[in-house]
Amino acid sequence: MQVCASRGFRRFTRPNPVDFLEQAWFLNCAVEGEAVVPALELLRALRGIELQMGSRKRVAKGPRLIDMDILLYGSETMDTPELQVPHPRMHLRRFVLVPLAEIAPEALHPTLKITVAQLLGQTPDRSTVRCFDLAE
Description:
Distance between the termini: 34 Å
Number of helices: 3
Mean pLDDT: 84
């Protein structure tokens, strides 16, 4: 069953580790999609993909094979133990905002009421985020 159709992807980034610093740099990207299911159902589908790929969270915020998050879900907001939308720390993470601003700079954060491009300009996070295309 298809739960989401991809509408946008620009390139990968390679940010330095955040929170749990004793890990290798990792690959990151943002993908814009059009979901055909509610946000919680989409999250469960993403978690299923993570499990099928063998990803396990052994340490909170630590290294893992793959980690997929829902950053925004249109103008919806949600706060449950399983899912918080918009992502509660996205505005504090340069590694999230850089690729998101490339594909959706005008997307509006539904609670802060500013665009992703503005969030990137205002984030206190000054960590390094290297961008590269698949051909590189």
